[in-house]
Amino acid sequence: MAHESTYEPKNAFTKWVDSRLPVPRLMHDQFVDFHTPRNLNYWYTFGGILTFCLVVQILTGVVLAMHYVANEQMAFASVERIMRDVNWGWLLRYTHAVGASMFFIAVYLHIIRGMYYGSYKAPREILWILGVIIFLLMMATAFMGYTLPWGQMSFWGVTVITNLFSSLDSIWDGLGTGIVEWIWGGYSVNNATLNRMFALHYLLPFAIAGVVGLHVWALHVTGNNNPTGIPVKSKADTVPFHPYTTMKDAFAMAVFGVLFAWLVFFSPNYLGHADNYVQANALVTPAHIVPEWYFLPFYAILRAIPSKLGGVLAMFGAIAVLFLIPWLDTSRVRSAKYRPLYRPFLILFFISVIALGYLGAQPAEGIYVTMSRLFTFYYFAFILVLMPVIGLIERPKDMPSSIAESVLGKKAGAAPAPAE
Fold this sequence. Notes:
Blueprint: H1 12-20, H2 23-31, E1 35-37, H3 46-65, H4 75-84, H5 89-116, H6 125-147, H7 152-163, H8 175-184, H9 191-222, E2 238-240, H10 241-266, H11 296-304, H12 308-320, H13 325-328, H14 342-360, H15 366-393, H16 403-408
Antiparallel strand pairs: 1-2
Helix pairs in contact: 3-5, 3-9, 3-10, 4-5, 5-6, 5-10, 6-7, 6-9, 11-12, 11-14, 11-15, 14-15
């Protein structure tokens, strides 16, 4: 939300800087005096947590890249050398590996909050689209990063997933095979493939940081949504970002950090796969090839469709439909808190994604495939059919007249604004 600057330079030096490059003014106006709705809960702390995760991944990744060798003969050994011979290498590697999972835990919770409170609705459509782009870039970065240890699951994971493009041969003969060979840099996964994955894995986090900058910019133009979905109407509806939001974010980040540290120090391989501690061997296929846990819902969708091309289209379509949500939700009410018909269907949607994650880790046979198809059907039916229809027929609950009233009650109008 745009507002008049309240920044006051304190001395001659800050006045000199402010007149030439007003970065301190920008930081003060956007991160200190920026006003946020007074009813934000802890679901709204995941933006700060995600920024923390991104910084951790970039810092640990840059240092790891100084010691990693992107060569198919030496990659696996270089990771073991980092773990055993590099000072604090084990901590860097485990922080980076666990950090990827923590990053995705936070982003999935961030998406859940956005969908539950309707943070994608006007005027925040571009904010939501930028968020989905960040999600896509995260998935691409994580997939390429999973290749780098060059263990059995790394090698066969990249073989299976990149081979999906060969399904395009059914549209145009030779198209898919050509794309696969171009990605591989040969007729099979080889040294060129590993080099390309390493280069892109190093580059994409900086692209993510750029889009995150746009995401924050878009947020500060439109302002925060809030649990009621009611727009800010007066100064009584808001509090300054500092100290109110910063303290809440700091506490949430500390709690998140405890879980992060517990996994790093006590169970760093809990979310990984044991086969990735076996060096890649093109002649030995693992009994059950699975991607990292955060890809499993989409992997289940891929396997649920009998047709190879259909599965690929469904998998990518499951992400593509997220871009359309701002226009598919026809309700005039943002928050599911006031939508009694929509809310149970939305919760069932969240359950279906979790179920798909479980099914993606199971063998592609019997009841697992049947259940994957049911939950895949509901995934698309909810977004493409139920969201538009429910928005037209639903009668929302009565809502408070303002954000302040939702917090302070009917006498909110008489309450003074918080001190700045």
